[in-house]
Specification:
The chain is mainly alpha-helical. It is built from six helices and two strands; from the N terminus they run ααααββαα. Helix 2 crosses helix 4 and helix 3 packs across helix 4. The relative contact order is 0.09.
Length: about 160
Amino acid sequence: MTTYIVILTTLLSNRKRISVEEDLTNLFNEIRLTFNAMTSFIDDLHTDEGITAGMRAVMEFVRRNGPHTVPQIANARGVTRQRIQILVNELLEAGLVEAQENPAHKRSMNITLTDEGTRAMTRMWEKENALIAERPWPFSPAKVKEAAQTLRQVRENL
């Protein structure tokens, strides 16, 4: 009888673990699909600005966090320095960001928004907020808060 209980307990424990693994796999898949859908959505939404989702992400980071170097932005965003450098070069060319002297490092300049970059960011936020407000979202504010907390915990545990 004891052997039967041990086997049953082990099977149930493994089943629970497999269920959690399957649930996390499904969650990760949804995150990837949502990221891709949001990237396309943002690219389409801001076509008139000439700003891609990647460029917007760099601009938003600098707007929210102040001047940072390319390596600092890359580290905070979890992407390569080279990818951020490409985006920053595009933003510099468009006049949306500028490189400023960095007292802490002679070669790595601080990237900050220009006045036009700040205005473009404000226009994008206004456009996005208007779309969010007009859509009939099928979930409550509590569900949104819970989803954000869950995603934050996933990110912090990676």
